[in-house]
Design brief:
Elements: H1 8-20, H2 26-29, H3 33-42, H4 50-57, H5 61-67, H6 69-75, E1 92-96, E2 108-116, E3 126-133, E4 139-144, H7 149-162, E5 169-171, H8 180-189, E6 193-197, H9 206-220, H10 228-248
Length: 253
């Protein structure tokens, strides 16, 4: 009896590549495998023979999806999206209107912050500010030494300059992570619409919440980062991640 073409070792290597590339679907993974596999081999991340490497690099998108179906079903992060193009604005509470809220238009973004406290919120630790465009899924991250308004608004300035389109509106969510007064002033100075979802909406900030999991937690994990060296490394990682996620991978938003 002939051994299976795609044995356990190859499937294990495929699963590793899938994790490295953010659990992309076959259509996103297949075109990158021919370049990714030899790179991972060169750095000792994949210990496979040449035949297995050739088979892995040549897998079709459909074959990848079939072989990973079980893992995808077990680990898929399911999110209910509240916002569709042209969705009603009754759920939104405007703080200041400069642009109409139409989720089909690039430039309307959601904000969130992730605490890198390792499960211990006490003491000084890093935070990551995430901005996700609702229409395109474009995401930018900046890690901060603290979450003071000075730090957050300086990071927002940098993030806004980095986006490939003008920021027209911000949904800061219904939580207390962003104090209204300073953010409102920041938005008014730049003529940016600021809105909050009404409190109690279970889908508050779902686009950026998904990116928190798919990018920040998947890459940065749940460890505590609380020194300047770690902060510097986090921001170097986000610079590379921005290119990978926004230019090279299919949108997961």
């Amino acid at each position: 009896m002939r051994p299976p073409k795609y044995g356990p070792k190859l499937i294990a290597a495929l699963s590793f590549c899938w994790e490295v590339l953010g659990r992309q679907a076959g259509k996103g993974l297949a075109p990158i495998l021919p370049e990714l596999v030899p790179i991972l081999q060169a750095f000792g991340e994949l210990d496979i023979d040449d035949r297995t490497a050739t088979l892995l690099a040549g897998m079709s998108a459909a074959t990848i999806d079939r072989r990973l179906a079980g893992q995808r079903n077990m680990s898929e992060f399911r999110v209910r999206w509240p916002t569709t193009p042209g969705s009603p604005r009754e759920r939104l509470t405007p703080a200041r209107i400069w642009a109409e809220w139409d989720a089909a238009v690039p430039g309307l973004v959601e904000l969130d912050q992730v605490a890198h406290d390792g499960g211990n919120p006490g003491g000084k630790h890093a935070w990551t500010l995430i901005v996700t465009d609702i229409s395109t899924g474009w995401t930018e991250n900046r890690s901060l030494a603290n979450k003071t308004h000075t730090s957050v608004l300086a990071a927002l300035d940098d993030l806004a300059r980095s986006m490939p389109f003008s920021v027209l509106g911000i949904d800061a969510g219904s939580g207390s992570k962003f104090l209204d007064h300073q953010l409102l002033i920041w938005c008014e100075q730049r003529q940016i619409t600021l809105i909050r979802l009404q409190r109690g909406n279970s889908n508050d900030g779902s686009h950026v919440e998904h990116r928190n999991w798919a990018i920040v937690h998947t890459v940065g994990g749940y460890r505590r980062y609380d020194n300047e060296t770690e902060l510097l490394l986090l921001n170097k990682i986000w610079a590379l991640q921005t290119t990978l996620v926004n230019y090279l991978l299919l949108s997961n938003s």
